[in-house]
């Protein structure tokens, strides 16, 4: 069974930075495309960023482009989300997700294809 565990969330002031991590176990990490999603109170879950299995492809939501960076370390079975210049509207529970997709040309940017999800980590940005 594939398990995903997020960490790195917390409370930060506007303009600050956080680095989220998602550790994956129970599968061959290098065969999985990974994604980050977030859900704010009263809102639907939305796409944040995604990365292909080998890290060769990435994609970002317009709202985070230029501020967030997704990366992965296949030797450590971990995907990261570096978040800079944080804004109050970035406040949400952040989830990582995995889907088996070994082609490094494929980035999965919608939630439905993802088979595995973490439990989420809270990010709160104060104004």
Q: Could you explain the architecture of this structure?
A:
The protein is an all-beta fold and 127 residues long. Helix content is 0%, strand content 50%. It contains no helices and eleven strands. It has strands at residues 3-7, 10-13, 18-25, 32-39, 46-51, 58-60, 68-73, 78-83, 92-100, 116-117, 121-126. Strands 2, 4, 5, 6, 9, 10 and 11 form a seven-stranded mixed sheet that branches. A four-stranded antiparallel sheet has the order 1-3-8-7, with no helix packed on it. It is globular.
Provide a concise account of the structure shown.
With 127 residues, the chain is mainly β.
What structural class should be given to the helix and strand makeup? mainly beta
DSSP summary: helix tally: 0
Order of helices and strands: EEEEEEEEEEE
Instruction: Give the end-to-end Cα distance, rounded to a whole number of Å.
Output: 40 Å
The description of the largest β-sheet is: 7 strands, mixed
Query: Compute the gyration radius: what is it?
Result: 13 Å
Average of the residue pLDDT scores: 96
Q: Would you report the number of β strands?
A: 11
Helix content: under 10%
Q: What share of the residues does DSSP label as strand, in percent?
A: over 45%
Residue runs with pLDDT of under 50 for 5 or more positions: none
Shape: globular
């Amino acid at each position: 069974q594939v398990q995903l565990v997020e960490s790195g969330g917390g409370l930060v002031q506007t303009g600050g930075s956080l680095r989220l991590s998602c550790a994956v176990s129970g599968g061959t990490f290098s065969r999985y495309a990974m994604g980050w999603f977030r859900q704010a109170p009263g809102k639907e879950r939305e796409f944040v960023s995604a990365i292909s299995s080998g890290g060769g492809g990435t994609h970002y939501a317009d709202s985070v482009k230029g501020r967030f960076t997704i990366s992965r370390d296949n030797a450590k079975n971990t995907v990261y989300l570096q978040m800079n210049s944080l804004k109050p509207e970035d406040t949400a529970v952040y989830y990582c997700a995995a889907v088996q997709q070994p082609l490094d040309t494929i980035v999965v940017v919608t939630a439905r294809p993802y088979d595995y999800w973490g439990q989420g980590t809270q990010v709160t940005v104060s104004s």
